[in-house]
Design a protein that fits this description.
mainly beta, 24-stranded parallel sheet, four-stranded antiparallel sheet
């Protein structure tokens, strides 16, 4: 027995050592996997932040993995991180050579431990345009050489129509991704990349936002309209409050709407401007400038017209009820379609594809509306852009959510996503924080 025990002792010691080393390998693999998971999530979450790029996501993932994966001896594992998809995923590989003291007796002095983790953004990443209508043909429609450029964000249509997104007559859309809950129509349109179809409809990300309360009506008086009887009589349908001279306006409730016309030059003080029972119109070589201003449309006869011969430069509020919202339409306002005929002679806007009529029209014809910084939220309205020049191209970011979005006659709509270059917040659910993170190994 003693001889047998003496012969078996090295084997037993070897087995015990192997068991200890195997346990250590399993423990170390678990630690490295945890480090890889944490790193991939940290990396992909960079794409939810302002101005994130592939390099910053990789740098964050690698730094996190090395910090989390450092062993008790202070040595750092090897880490490789790569971005996958269109800024929608990060894959992290962590590996380490683990020494095996007992393995030397089996000619295996070390073992390689390698783990991998992939984190992806689920849903639409960096959402910057969403057509809400659930059934309309051409809920997102562009034609006649119209262009949409959204290189760092995504375009989406909730319409389940076979033509939920339409493009025709040399229209072009460039985006991080384009998706429709229904189908896509438009062989002559160029979408880069091509739209994905049968995508799940998105919940309105701003459905919980409440509009500001109305206050007492502001009365501008006669002196702000010195050209009242010059170049035509003021039409009250275009706004009861008329400005045709130089003016600085205060925030508040403009009952009957606001009409800026006949060469007026208007500067808005920061705050919220409520258009109650009337539209906002800028036409006849007038200009409207506002920093940290938001417009809320409520009541009957709401709408908007920035005519061809107008200059518009607006940025959304930094805080308050309309933080990040440039235009906000009361989703519970009663029906009251008002089609405003522009003074430029361009005529009535084209009917919506499929003949569906929105409750209100918000129309941008202006060839100088290059700063529209913030979110345009028109949950029951139709946004029409039929200018012939760039729109919103000088904005740090622009997000559009509307029931219908139609572009005609060659505008170049720029939906920038330079979120980190402005102090105006992006509403939760759009912009850089539109997606959830999912982890796989």
């Amino acid at each position: 027995m003693l001889v047998l025990f003496a012969l078996m002792t090295p084997v037993l010691i070897g087995l015990a050592g192997a068991a200890i080393e195997y346990t250590g390998l399993v423990k170390r693999r678990t630690e490295l996997q945890r480090a890889a998971d944490t790193a991939s999530i940290a990396g992909v979450n960079q794409f939810k932040l302002a101005n994130a790029d592939d390099a910053s996501a990789i740098r964050m993932a690698e730094t996190t993995a090395k910090a989390q994966g450092r062993n008790n001896g202070g040595s750092t594992p090897q880490v490789t991180a790569v971005v996958i998809g269109n800024h929608s995923g990060v894959q992290v590989t962590v590996s380490e050579t683990v020494p095996l003291p007992f393995g030397k007796f089996l000619n295996m002095p070390s073992a390689e431990v390698a783990v991998r983790s992939t984190a992806k953004l689920a849903g639409t990443t960096r959402l910057c345009l969403l057509a809400l209508d659930p059934v309309a043909q051409g809920a997102f429609h562009l034609e006649s050489a119209a262009r949409v450029t959204a290189s760092d964000c995504s375009l989406y249509s909730n319409s389940t129509s076979s033509a939920g997104i339409e493009g025709e007559n040399a229209a072009v859309a460039k985006a991080l991704s384009t998706c429709t809950a229904g189908g896509f129509s438009g062989s002559s349109a160029i979408f880069m990349p091509p739209p994905a179809t049968n995508c799940p409809p998105l919940r309105d990300p701003l459905i919980e936002r409440q509009g500001p309360p109305s206050g007492n009506c502001i009365s501008l008086g006669f002196f702000l309209d010195p050209k009242k009887f010059i170049d035509g009589i003021d039409d009250p349908l275009f706004g009861v409050n008329v400005v045709s001279g130089f003016a600085t306006l205060n925030p508040g409730t403009y009952c009957g709407g606001l009409h800026i016309t006949k060469g007026a030059q208007v500067v808005l003080k920061p705050g919220i401007y409520i258009m109650k029972n009337g539209p906002l119109v800028v036409d006849k070589n007038a200009s409207l400038t506002g920093v940290n201003t938001g417009f809320y449309f409520t009541g009957m006869r709401g709408g908007l017209l920035f005519d061809e011969k107008s200059v518009v430069s607006l940025t959304a509020p930094k805080d308050g009820d309309m933080a990040g919202l440039l235009f906000f339409e009361d989703r519970l306002a009663p029906p009251g379609l008002l089609s405003l005929l522009p003074a430029s002679g361009k005529g009535k806007a084209k009917s919506a594809p499929g003949g569906i009529t929105a409750l209100r029209e918000y129309r941008i014809i202006s060839d100088n509306a290059r700063t529209l910084l913030g979110t345009i939220y028109l949950p029951v309205g139709r946004l029409i852009i039929d200018s012939k020049k760039p729109v919103a191209d000088q904005s740090a970011y622009t997000v559009i959510i509307a029931r219908m979005i139609n572009l005609y006659d060659g505008p170049d709509l720029m939906l920038n996503a330079r979120y980190g270059t402005t102090d105006i917040p992006v509403p939760k659910g759009v912009g850089p924080s539109s997606a959830d993170t999912q982890l796989s190994q």
